Amino acid sequence: SSIPPVRIIVFTSRRKLKADISAAFPSLTADELTELVPNKEELNVVKIYAHKGDALTLYVLHKNPLFFELEKRLYPTVYVLWRYPALLPTFRTWPPVLQKLVGGADLMLPGVVVPSSGLPEVKRGDCCSVTLVNNRAPVAVGSAAVSSGEMRSLGMKGRGVCVLHAYMDNLWAFGDKSAPPSLPDAEGEGLEVNGEEYEADDIEEEEVEKCEEEEQEEQEEQERTPGAKVTNQARSGLEELSLAEQEEERGDGEEEANQDDLKMPQEIMDALLLRCFLHALKSKVKKSELPLLTSTFLRNHMFSCCPSGTQLDIKKSSYKKLSKFLQAMQKQHNLVRVRELTKGVESIVEVDWKNRELRYFKVPEETDDEASPAPDRGDGAEPPYRPPEITALYSVSSRLEPLFLDAKKRKGTILQPEEVRHIVTEYVKNNELVDENNKNYVTINPTLCDCLLEKSEYQEVESLKWDDLFSRALGRMQECYQVVYPGHAPIRKKGHMEPIDISVASRGSNKKVTLIKNLEVYGLDPAAVGTALQRRVQASSVLQPIPGSKDKVLVQIQGNQIHQVGNLLIDHYQIPRKYIQGLDKAPKGGKKK
Question: How many CB atoms lie within 10 A of CB 218?
């Protein structure tokens, strides 16, 4: 695909665009139209040609695409729908379906969650949006594959919405990449799936699997039928838009979606939960730690007891929630007692250490590396991570060259701090410069004066303490460093070793994300670190390319997670604290922001 130069919309075109938007979306008021298409602010139009030749026109304000035009029809982007969530008829679905939509799938009817008020009334081809249960913020835009009446007559089977654009696709990435706002969904309770009521937390993965089966059948049918729908071509075109470095982000997203497809049966996950629970109680939790926050117990103890090569995911168990699992451990197994010490926050207040099940549980014999979270090691076949050995070095500068000539060290020679101290000490002794009256001082001769003193000190300073002498010598040399990665030859470079940088940024109105950069400098795999953090804090993480850098990416994870990032880097990866920048930005009191 190609992107011609951006063009600024003139007044007449702006007025026509307003009229087109008003005609396409009559529910918008005059004030809302003016807010979307302001008269004085810069509004850009961008032409994009997708790989199949479909021409798309983007209307961009403040770097965010607001609308896209396909075949002379306007569609809003998610950025507009987050401001006006009721702009289009909406179909709800379950959160696991989002990954399928991002990967290019359409919304299949078995995955549609029907509210008590029934389906929205739409005709075939009507523009509509897709939301997730318990959040009214739309995550996808498309057109109705069939009318509402046909959906009901088909028994909620087949294709529901032909998706053209979704949150986290390349069109979204053309903007500021903000996350959907949290808009409470009053209809979140008492929803129906194919006529039966479910609670959101009790939804089974069979619904997602039904969607996949329906989608597979539709694709097979389309392959047998000559000619594909224009909307599907457009969707494919949007999927493969090449907007600068976003191809890499898509690749990472598809890998994560593929990993999500590897589903673990509930029975196996239930057994793994129980095993990690017993293992954590028997070998990790101490009586002095009680009462212990249930979230801390899961994050710091249960996850670390997960066998290598497996991943603990409560949502894939029959319990769905940690609170329900702990209730079962309390009522059915009598292993723990859980109480709500503060409103909405549960803690383990008591453990029955004499419980027969706990006493007879045999802790698996694993090495420390095997007992660590699997993602921290990347692929199970790879050796455990070892931090590089970093050594501070100093290069002889032209000013200090006379001081090092006796040791045959010329300008540019790289030395360790101990070598510098030894050479300076030998120079002082060979030239008999140790003060006879006080051996803690060194007499300044002309060479030391030129090398170590400032011009203002030439007439005033006659001697220096040994420590001052050494610090001045090191301070006037070029700083360097040597880094040795396990299994590789030493690498020497000038300057400082670039620290791992941790920062917190705002996304949207009240969202914070933690950004981690320069992991590659220390031989760390950003994808493995992101996955390890995702498991520790139970929040989503993504990799993003760093502008201006070809080989580096940053890890972005939801919330202020600086405490957890610091603990992972220092305790697990053994990165020295002095090589980590930004730990001071952690929230006080350990609270997440």
Answer: 17
E strands, 85-195, are: 90-93, 107-108, 112-113, 127-132, 135-144, 159-166, 191-193
**Residues 382-414 pLDDT 10s:** 467 788 888 889 999 999 999 999 899 999 999
- 256-268 pLDDT, tens digit each: 444 443 344 677 8
Listed in sequence order, the DSSP H helices in 284-394 are: 294-296, 322-331, 356-359, 368-371
Residue 312: per-residue pLDDT: 79
Amino acid 503 reads: S
> In 225-284, which residue ranges form alpha helices assigned H by DSSP?
230-239, 246-261, 266-283
Residue 421: which residues within 8 A CB-CB, separation 6 or more?
470
Q: How many CB atoms lie within 10 A of CB 111?
A: 28
> What is the DSSP secondary structure assignment for residue 550, as one 8-state letter?
S
Nearest 10 degrees: CA dihedral of 377, 380, 381, 386?
20
- Per the listing, tokens 């990472």 go with 252
> What's the confidence (pLDDT) of residue 267?
78
Task: Tell me the C-alpha distance between 538 and 272, whole Å.
Answer: 18
Res. 245: pLDDT tops 50: no
**For residue 309, what pLDDT band results from cuts at 50, 70 and 90?**
low
* Local confidence band at 224 (pLDDT 50, 70, 90 cut-offs): very low
Please tell me what DSSP assigns to residue 568.
I
Strands 159-166 and 7-8: unpaired
Nearby residues of 243 by Cβ (< 8 Å), 6 or more positions away = 3, 170, 173, 174
Asked whether 311 and 535 are in contact (CB, 8 A), the reply is yes
Farthest CA pair distance, the chain: 106
Quote the tokens at residue 461.
């300073």
Residues paired with residue 504 on neighbouring β-strands, in sequence order: 514
CA distance 450 to 222: 84
The kind and range of the H/E element at 311 are none
Kindly tell me the burial class for residue 515, based on how many C-beta atoms sit within 10 Å of its own C-beta (0-12, 13-18, 19 or more).
middle
Cis peptide before 291 (omega within 30 of 0): yes
SS3 content of the chain, % helix, strand, coil (to 5): 40, 25, 40
Higher pLDDT, 431 or 52: 431
Q: Crossing angle for the helix pair 266-283 and 322-331, nearest 10 degrees?
A: 70
Question: CA-CA distance, 49 to 43, in Å (whole number)?
Answer: 20
Hey, which bits of 508-540 come out as E strands? 511-517
Q: At what angle do helices 95-102 and 246-261 cross, to 10 degrees?
A: 130
Contact in structure between 47 and 9 (CB atoms under 8 Å): no
If 0-12 CB within 10 Å is exposed, 13-18 middle and 19+ buried, where does residue 234 land? Answer: buried
- The 8-class DSSP code of residue 449 comes to H
Q: What pLDDT sits at residue 359? A: 85
Judged on CB neighbours under 10 Å (0-12, 13-18, 19+), 226 is: exposed
Q: Which pTM was predicted?
A: 0.39
- Residue of 109, 98, 95 whose CA lies nearest to 160: 109
In whole angstroms, what is the distance from residue 393 CA to residue 399 CA? Answer: 17
Residue labelled with tokens 């654009």: 165
Instruction: Give the integer Cα–Cα distance in Å for 55 and 48.
Output: 6
**Contact in structure between 312 and 273 (CB atoms under 8 Å):** yes
127 forms beta bridges with 143
